[in-house]
């Protein structure tokens, strides 16, 4: 399949996640049936390896990174992920997800690891996919405008979102847009410049009790349209976001 066969791109998900071991095949098939391509994101050595396998098997896109929740791993283990990503330069669209998480202790060490992987992205000349839960301002301070970044599941302020976009970065709306007032408010007040969409599957499900999956990225686009139907048709929004995603990842 080539990109022209698709109408949507889930710009950030984890179909390589272990919890999908038993249903991965069907999850991917359901997405492809709905013309949804996806970018799956490695977060540790095992998940990075599985992501590369999925790329080879299904032709999906990948980014590889190291999740800030894994701050307590030994240097040695982190170096292994680093070298693995370095060796997959040709396979990846971006380095990520990497970043900071307010809920995880040891912010100082999180920052050291974050900076290490930012350097790697610079070395490989790739954009970065940022996890910045509750740490949006600090993440931006560290990144400055060194690399083009995509803020996955952006949940920060409207002001910062505007500044990020003005400086060429991308904001990703997740399935949280389907039910969260804060996220709906961001959609209402930002234009569609540099906006992409994601599910973060299997997390952030829009349906209680169900695992999230990439085909739900269509629900994200529909939720955006609900809030912007005075300005755009559903088709226009779909196309703009699709093209933004291609621009972000150079595909
Ligand atoms: Zn994620």
Automatic annotation (TrEMBL):
Pfam families: TatD_DNase
Gene3D superfamilies per record: Metal-dependent hydrolases
GO molecular function: DNA nuclease activity; hydrolase activity, acting on ester bonds; metal ion binding
UniProt keyword Hydrolase present: yes
Binding site for a divalent metal cation 1: 12, 14, 97, 200
UniProt superkingdom: Archaea
Alphabetic keyword roster: Hydrolase, Metal-binding
Enzyme Commission designation: 3.1.21.-
Residues the entry annotates as binding a divalent metal cation 2: 131, 152
UniProt xrefs under CDD domains: TatD_DNAse (cd01310)
Annotated signal sequence range: none
Protein name in UniProt: TatD DNase family protein
Source species of the chain: Methanococcus maripaludis (Methanococcus deltae)
């Amino acid at each position: 399949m080539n990109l022209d066969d698709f109408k949507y791109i889930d710009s950030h998900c984890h179909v390589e996640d272990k919890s999908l071991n038993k249903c991965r095949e069907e999850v991917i098939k359901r997405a492809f049936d709905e013309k949804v391509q996806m970018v799956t994101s490695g977060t540790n050595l095992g998940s990075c390896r599985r992501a590369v396998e999925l790329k080879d098997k299904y032709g999906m896109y990948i980014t590889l990174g190291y999740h800030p929740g894994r701050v307590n791993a030994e240097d040695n283990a982190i170096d292994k992920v680093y070298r693995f990503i370095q060796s997959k330069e040709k396979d990846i669209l971006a380095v990520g997800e990497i970043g900071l998480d307010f809920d995880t202790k040891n912010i100082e060490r999180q920052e050291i690891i974050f900076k290490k992987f930012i350097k790697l992205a610079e070395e490989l000349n790739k954009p970065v996919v940022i996890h910045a839960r509750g740490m949006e301002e600090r993440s931006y301070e560290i990144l400055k405008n060194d690399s083009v970044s995509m803020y996955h599941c952006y949940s920060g302020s409207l002001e910062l979102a505007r500044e990020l976009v003005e400086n060429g970065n991308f904001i990703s709306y997740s399935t949280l847009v389907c039910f969260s007032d804060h996220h709906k408010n961001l959609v209402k007040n930002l234009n569609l410049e540099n906006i992409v969409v994601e599910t973060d599957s299997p997390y952030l499900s829009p349906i209680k009790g169900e695992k999230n999956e990439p085909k739900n990225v269509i629900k994200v686009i529909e939720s955006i349209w609900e809030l912007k139907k005075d300005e755009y048709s559903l088709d226009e929004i779909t196309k703009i976001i699709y093209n933004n995603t291609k621009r972000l990842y150079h595909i």
